[in-house]
Amino acid sequence: MRIALINSGLGLLAPAAVLHRMRPDADLVLAPDPDGMPWGPRTPDDIADRALLCAHATLRYQPDILVMACNTGSVHALGRMRDEFEPDIPVIGTVPAIKPAAAAYRNVAIWATAATTASAYQRRLIAEFAGSASVTAVACPGLADAVDAGDDAGTAAAVAAAACQTPAGCGAVVLGCTEYELVTGQIRQAVPGVVTFGSAAAVAAQALRRIPPAGPVGHADGEPALASGTGTANGRLGTVRVLLSGRPAGLPQAALRYPEGRLLAPLVVTGEEREPAASPVAGG
């Protein structure tokens, strides 16, 4: 079982860590885009182009599923990715957890990037899923960038600024950017009593549900595939491969500042012990 995750930065660490906990035998391919980040200020076509560049790079490892582990990428690139790769390779996206948060709390804040906060996409999600809950959109300029850089001071300042915009009595904060899930502890400290709602667990569960039951064939590592469920193949732990804007590399140093990065770091394979099999032809 091999799962590829795509994001402009380190936001893919949260769902990757959940996937590893759920399926320790799964091989993960992490494909952030440091050359193109941040995606937010880019045009929709440019974002889709960057996402496709990262996705194509993962094909050499024959992923069973592609996960767009980025809210911005899901808005602007998911359609083109599905057109290109499905039905051969399922593609899933990331949606902010507005619905469960609004079902549980009357007062909800959505923390997101400035671009997402101003988008028609987020307004549609609120209209569709918020129900009778009172929803406050909170722009968090600089927070995702600080998280990606491992900038503790910048992260603290951005979190504090967003907390000041969050109304008193707010019961839930929806994390509308996957990078924010790496600093949920700081967010909870800045808004005492709040419950945070991320998307990593739901994305991971959906990825495992969508993997074809028959499993892959011809994996580069020669390991047998498992159907979705729990456990490992003969006690085998999966590997993690990292592609930075398509280039094989190690895990970025900033990733080690977060528990999710430290969890995955021992699994990272930086060399090619065995040449990967030829990439499948998508969309054929």
CATH architecture of the largest domain: 3-Layer(aba) Sandwich
Helix content: 25-40%
Give the domain tally.
2
CA distance, first residue to last residue: 21 Å
* SS content category: alpha/beta
Number of strands: 10
Summed over residues and divided by their number, the pLDDT gives a mean of 89
Low-pLDDT ranges: 215-230, 273-284
N-to-C order of helices and strands: EHEHEHEHEHHEHHEHEHEEH
Radius of gyration: 18 Å
Largest sheet: 6 strands, mixed
| Spatial order of the strands forming the largest sheet | 4-3-1-2-9-10
CATH top level of the largest domain?
A: Alpha Beta
Helix run count: 11
Strand content: 15-25%
Oligomer: single chain
Shape: globular
CATH topology description of the largest domain: Rossmann fold
What this model shows, in words?
The chain is α/β, with parallel strands linked by helices. The chain folds into two domains: 2-94 and 201-267, Rossmann fold; 98-198, 3-Layer(aba) Sandwich (Rossmann fold), CATH 3.40.50. It has helices at 13-22, 44-58, 71-85, 98-104, 114-117, 120-129, 143-149, 152-165, 184-190, 200-210, 259-264, and strands spanning 2-7, 27-32, 65-68, 91-92, 107-112, 134-139, 172-175, 195-197, 240-244, 247-249. A hairpin with a 2-residue loop joins strand 9 and strand 10. The longest helix has 15 residues, at 44-58. Mean pLDDT is 89; it is low at 215-230 and 273-284.
